[in-house]
Batch of 2 targets.
Target 1
Amino acid sequence: MIKHLLSIEDLNAEQIEDILNRADYYARALYDGRWDRDKLDQKIVLTLFFENSTRTVTSFDIAAKRLGADVVNWNADLSSLSKDESFSDTIDTLSAMKPDCIVIRHSDYGAPKFVADRVKCPVVNAGDSWREHPTQAFLDALTMIQEKGKLKGLNVAICGDVAHSRVANSNARLLTKMGANVRFVAPQMLMPQKLPAEGIECFDSIEEGIKDADVVMMLRIQKERMDRGTIPDEAAYFNNYGLTFERLKHAKPDAIVMHPGPMNRGVEIADDVADDPKRSMMKRQVANGIPTRMAILDMVMSSKK
Ligand code: CP
């Protein structure tokens, strides 16, 4: 049992497996239409998104409601932050209303941990700066297990703007802990200076980096997080690093293509690859956000403090 979910870095392989097993349970239960709809009855989940989101905020909302919880989607733009109330006073104020769980996304490094240290309820990280996005890594791992039957021994190439990607960090940590072989594929300016886990292989050629990959995970260029270097010319970037069917031939014949979204078509991925019903897992990833977040909410809100 875990009290909060703040990072993959905090978790061991057994805890990761427990969460993945519970996510798999909820994926099957949703498919069969049989699960405990009152599991979180009378509980209130407070979502605090200080950064925009389509997938994560909506799937936490739906996941909580599927388990019978009420959800309060707090809106930073309409809050008293605009009247210069500080972040810590805002958190103390919201905590005084006694939510049963806080789900937070913030652009500042370590904000979810800062909140977890101040409040009495469980806190779930829904995106922490460029550092971690643990629930995304869990839904991605669930998708890989559904398609490939395992994580151990899989060759997973994570390609694109790895330097600014919390998804790359969390995925690399989870996958290496579970025995997968992780590669980062990026031009030098988009490769992180410090790798998030041991054993990651780095490539600046996409053809070499995706060779014999079971999973090719593409990432968008995160212009909002770029504080060094220049933004590459998008057409040139696509020519050198965009995933096309021609390039995908370097991966295994049954390799799947993943993308956490939002995607930029014609920049990191070609339309026909993104829309391929057999190879592209993007819609499945989005769907898996619901059982994965049900599992995580169930786990943190059911755990004895
Ligand atoms: N993958 C992901 O975090 O998407 P959103 O920014 O839409 O939540």
Target 2
Amino acid sequence: MAVTIQIKHWPIPLNEQERIIFQAVAHAAAKMGVKAYAIGGFVRDKLLGRPVKEIDFVCVGDSIALARAAAKCLPGKTSLVQVFKRFGTAHFVWQDYSIEFVTARRESYHPDSRNPDVEPASLEEDLLRRDFTINTLAISLQESSFDQLLDAFEGLEDLRQKRIRTPADPIITFRDDPLRMMRAIRFATQLHFHLAPELVEAISQEAPRIQIVSQERITDELNKILMAQKPSIGFEWLFKTGLLQLIFPQMVALAGVEMIDGKGHKDNFYHTLQVVDNVAARSDKLWLRWAALLHDIGKPATKRFDPQQGWTFHGHEVVGARMVPKIFAQLKLPTHQPMEYVKKLVLLHLRPISLTKENITDSAIRRLLFEAGDDLEDLMLLCEADITSRNPQKVKRYLQNFALVRKRLQEVEEKDRIRNWQPPITGEMIMERFKLPPCKLVGDIKNAIREAILDGKIGNNFEEAWEYMIQVARELQVPNVD
Ligand code: ATP
Ligand code: MG
């Protein structure tokens, strides 16, 4: 395929740092007698007015030598130049810019791998191997054409039309490297662009190819979709194209509405997406967004129809919390801290609702403070985001109820200091007082003290706890009580 590069007006000025970088690379390239271009995400995001701190340069020639020479031309220090010989790329950091160099190349793919054989090639051939037209825009660094915008595939027009399109046949593009299907949907989400119809069709057709992509790369794209302003855009595309069924079937199980005796329930897939968007509007925390995505994941497994009550999902928070570790393992998300946090929020997501009922005791409030600890604010935010009713009266009432819960939580916390609380008597103290070795009895006494404090039977202080400990020990016939 012949590629004709058009030269376009490039209206966005570079800032001072970017100008210094461009001049350094241009200078180094001129000295080496090679052609270099800024390309890809940097050019795209600059034209869109998005903040960008990563610059990719493509070099028709030895990009590794160019990286080393450019680093030397920059004022002040750069990081070490990291070289990836196999990929013909080099990378360094200067100030807060991450700068990458790649040798212009042509690629040929094998059916079983997304890693192609590569050969050095012309700029035109390099542009043709790139995923989307909006990622093929290049800025020339040659002296004769410095700062010109090169547009081979009408990428500028696609930027204007807010359209994701591939330079080559989309079927072949996605078959060659199926990660591009995830990237297409991710860019559509991040940029609020639409997918050209032939891309939607090609992704739907080639979706099963996603199986040759490593889980880490898939999850990386999922995280980027989740971190976008409106993550639902991406999840809807993943769902409609059939990708979601392959990479995250538990979420697809949320979709749909069943009817019995004229009674339906809400579509939990679209409800979940709404909750994720609501959370995204108020917080940048990735793991809180994951908690929103998973908060109702236990619903399909707990769905029942009761002729009196209609549809119920009893215990879905418990079942959902239990599903979290498996999902994290399947998606290769980090276990430990983030996983425990998500699990906790899924488990507790109905508790603040139960506290909106009348006659709630201090003890119920204390328990939530104790169990949620530092994550209480996030939990409340999730609960407020969970209100997706279209009835404004209802929404108002629910929000008012949560405001009351927040007030109660604050009052009880000020009085009892339960959040991040450690019971005043430790296991060591119990062992020492009764001359006990570590054993179950010690745990039983400790739990009894904690429960008594949470229930409000005794105050949250050392003296009352100590007295209560002696009393419990006596009841349990612990040796050395008196
Ligand atoms: P971002 O950095 O926001 O993810 P980007 O467009 O800069 O967006 P990179 O992954 O940094 O994406 O890649 C830089 C450029 O390399 C892209 O703009 C695109 O031209 C090309 N590219 C990256 N990945 C692929 C791929 N899988 N297939 C084809 N071209 C790709
Ligand atoms: Mg980039």
